[in-house]
Structure formats: structure tokens, C-alpha cells
Amino acid sequence: SYLRVSGLAQVKGDGFTRQREAVEARAAANGLELVGEYRDEGVSGTIGLDGRPGLSALLERVLSNGVRVVIVERADRIARDLIQSELILDELRKAGVSVIEAESGQDLASEPNASAVLIRQVLGAVA
Hints:
This protein is α/β, with parallel strands linked by helices. The chain has helices at 15-29, 53-64, 82-94, 114-126, and strands spanning 2-5, 38-41, 69-72, 98-101. It contains 4 helices and 4 strands; from the N terminus they run βαβαβαβα. Strands 1-2 form a two-stranded parallel ribbon. The chain has a two-stranded parallel sheet with strand order 3-4.
């Protein structure tokens, strides 16, 4: 799982608890076992992969073993910047990873057709 909060004040709030509960519920609904949690504390969603130690560690783990599913609460936990979101999802896609949004169950890294990509990108731009 990957969790992120933007502000340092949010680190002590309910953001991580809320995200973790959503991720755990999705994992249970999909019959998936959570084998690790990676998080970035007080990191803006506009920052790229190189500025996120938690997400970078998750990618390293994915590349070193057989993990093929990452669950996030919502797409905006990956990024709040369309370019960064697409770059990060591309790295995970290249590694053969599905990125499941806990709220919708949608695979954010999947590109089944142009319409699905457009919808993901419009929602990413709005975030």
C-alpha cells in the first residue's frame, strides 16, 4: 500500500488512518494480502518520484520481488499534478504493477482504451 499526506500537520491527523482503512477494505474485498506499507509524510502531491522516499522505496521493492499490486486510497494520493501522476503511473506500469484505487477499485495504471486514459487524465488534472 502507498499512503501520503501533504502537510506536516496532517501527519498526526486522521489522514493515514483513513487511508489505511480504505486500503485494507479494498485488499480484503479483492482477496489480497497486504505485505507492506509505504508512506510519505508531509510531501506535496506535486512532487515527483525522486522527492518521495516512501514511493521510491515502494518502487524498489516492486522491482526486487513479485509484488504486482499497489493499493492507494484515491488517485490523488499518487499525485495532484497530472504530469507527475502520469510519470509515476508509467514507472509502475513498466514494472508490471496494477495500481488499485481503494474507493473505486479501478486500476489506475491500466490503459484499456483511449477513453479510460482520458477520464483518468481529466480527473488527475482536476486533482
